[in-house]
Specification:
Structural class: alpha+beta
Distance between the termini: 35 Å
Strand content: 15-25%
Shape: extended
Order of helices and strands: HEHHEE
Radius of gyration: 19 Å
């Protein structure tokens, strides 16, 4: 049988809690289609990619339904190996005033 014991949070955890609470209070949540950002000026849709060249389902499927350009650019970038590494980013035109940032951030 698993048992847990509650203890008082450490000072570090208390500080983190305050920082997190303040950070969350600064966020502004919008409902809508993440593939069609609104507002004036240039917009960037940041997409976190893996470093194995996979373009799966979910959000990337929604991107690909609107434009094949981000997927094609990502696959070409992966195949070439030029500059393709964890932490690198590729900006791909997506729509007028909108770019997709293919960010290699998952191993």
């Amino acid at each position: 049988q698993t048992r847990t014991r509650r203890t008082a949070p450490s000072k570090a955890n208390q500080k983190f809690g305050l920082i997190f609470k303040n950070f969350v209070s600064m966020l502004h949540f919008l409902l809508g289609d993440a593939t069609a950002p609104t507002g004036e000026g240039r917009k960037i849709i940041v997409h976190v990619c893996n470093d194995i060249g996979g373009w799966g389902k979910g959000f990337v499927g929604a991107l690909s339904r609107r434009s094949r350009a981000p997927e094609m650019a990502y696959r070409k970038w992966f195949a070439s190996g030029e500059g393709f590494a964890l932490g690198e980013v590729q900006f791909v035109p997506f729509a007028p005033e909108i770019e997709v940032a293919n960010l290699v951030g998952q191993h």
